[in-house]
Amino acid sequence: MLPAGRRQLTLTAACAVLAGACCLGIAATSQKTAPKPPAATAQAPVFFPAPSQNSGNDSSSQHDSATSSTPSPSSSGTPTAPPPVNVSIPAIHVSAPIVPLGIQPDGEIQVPSDVRRVGWYELGPAPGALGPAILVGHVDSARSGPGVFFRLGALQPGDSITVDRADGTQVTFTVYAVREYQKDRFPTATVYGPTADPELRLITCGGSFDHASGHYRDNIVVFARTT
Predict the structure, then answer these.
(1) End-to-end Cα spacing for the chain
(2) How far from 69 is each of 75, 155, 166, 185, 191, CA to CA, in Å?
(3) What 8-state DSSP symbol labels residue 159?
(4) What backbone torsions phi and psi does residue 63 show, to the nearest 5 degrees?
(5) Residue 65 pLDDT
(6) CA angle at residue 221 from 215 to 223, to 5 degrees?
(7) Given this model, what pLDDT does residue 88 score?
């Protein structure tokens, strides 16, 4: 999700692109339903330490859930890290290549063209850099079946996520929360806001399938931090 200035998009538009491009098929044909987070925790608040004053993240562009937007590009003061090339999530049997994603000419967020690949929003932090690195993936496809993040909702606190980086190093994260949010009530500041340490967000579509629109109604978000 290529540097293009500090352009902001509405989260509604971004989710529509993600849903329309990758969330058709399995639910529409009633073949399978992707796992959901436990009901007791799916909507619970997520708490994490506030960033320090000199974290280098620009909080001025963050919005609450009523004015959701996509992540802003990381500021020049944000510590960098090598770009990610692969992600492994043993608990849900995922090992997938990562492709960088930017913004399309029409101003919408890109999504992976292959349901087996994970996309990294490269306008934000790289995994292992300060702040929340964003990885997105398809839940399913009418043409190809279950996507790389089909089982994302089955992750639990304590599960590990390892990201391989272009310089041959790895960074490992531990899941601390798995949440399901309605797309029209997405908590942008919670998901994309500044953090005190390197964190990771994994995002896909979820919830019930709207046959009229051809989109899922919710998003599944996994929160993880470095160990």
Answers:
(1) 26
(2) 17, 26, 29, 11, 11
(3) -
(4) -130, 160
(5) 25
(6) 170
(7) 98
Given a contact cutoff of 8 angstroms between Cβ atoms, the answer to whether 156 and 178 are in contact is yes
Q: State how far the Cα of 222 lies from the Cα of 199, in Å rounded to an integer.
A: 11
pLDDT computed for residue 67 by the predictor: 27
Tokens read off for 96: 């997938």
Q: What is the mean pLDDT of each run of 10 residues along the chain (227 residues)?
A: 34 37 40 61 45 32 32 51 97 97 77 92 94 93 87 96 97 96 89 94 89 84 94
- State the alpha helices, DSSP H only, in the chain: 11-22, 39-42, 188-192
Nearest to 100 by CA among 64, 139, 127, 63: 127
Task: Report the candidate in 226, 185, 178, 218 with the shortest Cα–Cα distance to residue 202.
Answer: 178
Quick check: 9 and 107 in contact, CB under 8 A? yes
Give the per-residue pLDDT at 34.
73
Tokens 């390892």 map to which residue? 162
Copy the structure tokens of residue 58: 């620009």
> Tokens 């579509």 correspond to what residue?
205
Domains and CATH numbers, the chain: 11-73+81-226 (2.40.260.10)
Residue among 205, 184, 49 at smallest CA distance from 115: 205
